[in-house]
Amino acid sequence: MREVVIVEGCRTAVGRRKGSFTNYRADELAAIVLEELVTRSSINKEAVEDVILGCVTQVNEQGGNIARTAALIAGFPIHVPGVTIDRQCGSSQQAIHFAAQAIASGDMDIVIAGGVESMTRSPMFSNMGTTKPSGKLTDKYEIVNQGISAEKIANQWGLSREQLDAFSLRSHKKALEAIRRGKFEKEIVPVEVEGEDGKLRMMVVDEGPRESTSMDALAQLKPVFQEEGRITAGNSSQMSDGASAVLLMSGDKAKALGLKPWARIIARTVVGSDPTLMLTGPIEATNRVLDKAGLTIDDMDRYEVNEAFASVPLAWLQETKADPEKLNVNGGAIALGHPLGATGTKLMTTLIHELDRINGRYGLLAICEGMGMANATVIERLSHI
After folding, report:
1. Residue range 71-95, pLDDT digits in tens
2. Active site: which residues (predicted)?
């Protein structure tokens, strides 16, 4: 199997739902990161052999294979194909895995993996309409809203409302500190948007983090999914708009092109998990990917575990015995937002930059997914300078 490396990664800032990207089509937003990716890496668009994008709500402007349309908008030649995939919240992480598999097997040398989601223009579940789950499915499993799953996880792992809110406050504080220190500046592609005053400006800062967030403010929020529940809008991920992508290639191809990669992919896995609890998959996915890598959780210098709800990473921490000081150190989806199809490559982009910043060696990315699944990836930082 050939070595697979990450040569470059970039993302837009994440916009709040009905925020700065309200008037931006998802295909045009994705095209911006595709264009920027090849510009940063100085490769020819003609050399890209596939564009794999994750997108969950494939309807309206996000329908019709947005990977292909975005690549054409970005000026890729017509011989460069594109394919759009849906593995729920882990869609663009799965795009990385599919790209890596194509490269490792020798089928391809250079592939772009990424994702996009406009939760403003293509609202969550709008692709489902009034469709209900099959009775043949509900006869076998209790199919519930993800928020109910998050409540069940909080109950099973004994997580209090105060613990959930405290984790959420941490996410905001970490994100705000990262923004103040300019940690995201290198990974974000500026996008020109129209402000409320009608003037054009460059969107370069994630809109989600709130300076006003406090334990008192979070405590005032009512539960969303159960009357006496613990899951609120404050300890859940934000609906968001954004796009992201990474450029992968074989180690030999990168060397031949004179490129210095950020990282290599050490191991990857995807698992199914209980479709009722739904969001516990990262626990088993982490165990499996570390076993494949021949490493332990203590070997990881940083972990990004998507904050779909605060109960998800908190249960993950309990089960893996991971160091909380290495988890989502620059904030997570509770503060920064969760543009579904874009989140995987967004987090991977942040992870490679963070490992480089601290001279770390190994990083772990794990994301829970709808209907009970999870992807996990282990990378090893390379000196790219």
Report:
1. 999 999 999 999 999 999 999 999 9
2. 89 (acyl-thioester intermediate), 338 (proton acceptor), 368 (proton acceptor)
**E strands, the chain, in order:** 4-12, 15-16, 50-54, 82-85, 110-118, 188-189, 191-194, 200-203, 240-250, 263-272, 302-305, 362-369, 373-381
SS (H, E, C) 44-59: CHHHCCEEEEECCCCC
Give the tokens for residue 268: 């990857």
Nearest Cα to Cα of residue 246 among 33, 9, 53, 44:
9
Q: Pick the catalytic residue from 10, 55, 97, 368.
A: 368
pTM score: 0.98
Tokens, residue 22: 């309200």
Q: Which of 260, 356, 226, 372 is nearest to 302 (CA)?
A: 356
338 is catalytic: yes
What gap in Å lies between CA 362 and CA 167, rounded to an integer? 24
Between CA 15 and CA 243 the distance in angstroms is 10
* pLDDT tens string 96-123: 999 999 999 999 999 999 999 999 999 9
Q: Which of these is catalytic: 55, 89, 97, 172? A: 89
- Angle of helix 146-156 relative to helix 311-320, nearest 10 degrees, comes to 40
Residue pair 22/58 in contact by the 8 Å Cβ criterion: no
Check if 10 is active-site.
no
- Report how far residue 232's alpha carbon sits from residue 229's, in angstroms, rounded to the nearest whole number: 8
Q: Which residues pair with 192 in a beta bridge?
A: 202
